[in-house]
């Protein structure tokens, strides 16, 4: 019965269901690359994402502590290698992020379309 | 001519073109809502995004300092109101984010599709 215009019901915006552990752009990059590949090499991730080794390590630690990736060390020939594999929990978390982004993009077509 | 498997050329991943000012989930929420509406009320944004007033204020300051939104204060009747309007630069930045997310989602359909 208010005389002021009603802006309509407020419902949860798609961004409220984004998880910052997954949404942070570099971690989103790590998860999408490892979801595509069987497992990804540390150096490959570093170059593809344009990160310093220290920065990549920090993001991997966040993801590993959240149970979203597994990091293992080994050798290829004599060269030490670090491999990153997405976990089942990581795939589930990435799927949730992608669903939320898809909902967000619905109705927000890129300019020119 | 190397005997080790070549992981293929490393090209820039879509997440490398995401701008953290825009990509942060609450700021992405503010920009998408204000891009849809002519302008959005502070209280509406707070409720739609599930933010505390202090948290919303901090994100608005980041966006305003980057020139992506304009915040103005006024009255509706006797009640003080704060309105948020996206700028032209904000629309351009949001379009760039949406293009990068669209590129990222291409080939990452939600599970079940």
Describe what you observe in this structure:
2 copies of one chain form a homodimer. With 113 residues, chain A is α+β, with helices and mostly antiparallel strands. Chain A has 5 helices and 3 strands, in the order ααβααββα. A 3-stranded antiparallel β-sheet of chain A has the order 1-3-2. In chain A, a hairpin with a 2-residue loop joins β2 (69-76) and β3. At the A-B interface, α2, α3 and α5 of A face α2, α3 and α5 of B.
Principal-axis shape of chain A: elongated
Gyration radius of chain A, in Å: 19 Å
How would you classify the helix and strand content of chain A by structural class? alpha+beta
Q: What's the arrangement of strands in the largest beta sheet of chain A?
A: 1-3-2
Largest sheet of chain A: 3 strands, antiparallel
Q: Which features does this protein show?
A:
5 helices, disordered N terminus, 3 strands, homodimer, three-stranded antiparallel β-sheet, alpha+beta, 113 residues
